[in-house]
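Our preliminary data section would be incomplete without showing what the modeling component actually yields. Below, a chain of 73 amino acids is followed by its predicted structure, encoded as C-alpha cells that our downstream tools consume directly.
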Amino acid sequence: MLVAKSVRLGDLSLDGQTVYWSESRPEEQGRYAICRRTPDGRIDDVLPPPFSARTLANEYGGGAMLAADGTVY
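Predicted structure:
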C-alpha cells in the first residue's frame, strides 16, 4: 500500500525563522525524526539515526516537542 510507505509530517514548531517538524519514516522502521529548515533554506535532521523521538509512554496525543532558542524540547 502506497500510504503505508509515505513519510508523515507531525508536530510543527517555529523558533525565529527556523522551522522544526517531526516526520514518521516507514523506511527507517517507523523512526520519528526531528527536522529543521534554517533561514538559508538548509533542511537537516536534528535527531540523527538511529534515534527516534517517538515514545509509547503517555500515548494520548498532544504536542510532542517545542523549539526555543535553538534547542528542541
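The chain has no helices and six strands. The chain has a mean pLDDT of 85. Preliminary results of this kind motivate Aim 1 of the renewal.
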